[in-house]
């Protein structure tokens, strides 16, 4: 059972989420919040598997709430799926930097929202390839490049997988591209995330672009 907390300042939206998620046999809504401060307190209390977070909320906005729940230095971070009406690069980028594991728009279908919950719950990222390339490509050139830890170098195959992740490919697509099994791809992904100290695929995408592993990324 995937335990979910819904955070949105619009009661109608929260009710819709609760209805959609509650109808699923593997999802349980364990709390609701109408502002960011309440969301942070509630999530710390009930420890859900996934937090569905709006960006524009009173008292504390969704990006700052995400940072407090999943950002750098948080001892026991939770997985946050940002769902918002604002399709602005700056919002998406800041949400990811704050620690979000995925990003969807509120005009997503119920099926997409449900799939998003399940995707984030298992530790995968949730960004469409086109969004990934446009967003990270646009902002990567502004960020100081970093490099993998020399104490834990990636193997050539792990580096190849990282580059394909950064291009927005799913595990299944990577498996098809490299002609290896889906389980093998998952193993490579887990290993490279561990070596680089990254939390999930979203952060692997950001890392790859910052490290200059995607040719021409800054011009997408």
From TrEMBL:
- Residue intervals of the HTH luxR-type domain: 147-212
Boundaries of each Response regulatory domain copy?
A: 3-121
GO BP, one annotated term: regulation of DNA-templated transcription
4-aspartylphosphate PTM positions read: 54
Task: Please list the GO terms describing molecular function.
Answer: DNA binding
Entry keyword annotation includes NAD = no
* Keyword entries, A-Z: DNA-binding, Phosphoprotein, Transcription, Transcription regulation
Q: Which SMART domains match?
A: HTH_LUXR (SM00421), REC (SM00448)
CDD domains, sorted: LuxR_C_like, REC_NarL-like
UniProt-listed PANTHER family: TRANSCRIPTIONAL REGULATORY PROTEIN NARL-RELATED, TWO-COMPONENT RESPONSE REGULATOR
What's this protein's name? Answer: Response regulator transcription factor
Which source organism does the UniProt entry give? Umezawaea endophytica
């Amino acid at each position: 059972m995937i335990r979910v907390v819904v955070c949105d300042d619009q009661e109608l939206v929260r009710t819709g989420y609760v209805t959609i998620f509650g109808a699923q046999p593997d999802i349980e809504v364990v709390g609701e919040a109408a502002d960011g401060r309440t969301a942070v307190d509630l999530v710390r209390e009930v420890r859900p598997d996934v937090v569905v977070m709006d960006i524009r909320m009173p008292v504390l906005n969704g990006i700052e709430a995400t940072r407090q729940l999943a950002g750098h230095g948080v001892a026991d971070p939770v997985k946050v799926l940002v769902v918002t009406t604002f399709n602005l690069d700056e919002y998406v980028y800041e949400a990811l930097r704050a620690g979000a594991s995925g990003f969807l728009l509120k005009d997503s279908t119920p099926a997409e929202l449900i799939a998003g919950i399940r995707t984030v719950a298992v530790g995968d990222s949730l960004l469409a390839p086109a969004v990934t390339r446009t967003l990270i490509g646009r902002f990567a050139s502004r960020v100081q490049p970093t490099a993998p830890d020399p104490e834990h170098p990636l193997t050539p195959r792990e580096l190849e997988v990282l580059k394909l992740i950064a291009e927005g490919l799913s595990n299944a697509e990577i498996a098809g591209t490299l002609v290896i099994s889906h389980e093998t791809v998952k193993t490579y992904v887990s290993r490279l995330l561990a070596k680089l100290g990254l939390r999930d695929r979203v952060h692997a995408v950001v890392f790859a672009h910052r490290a200059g592993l995607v040719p021409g990324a800054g011009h997408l």
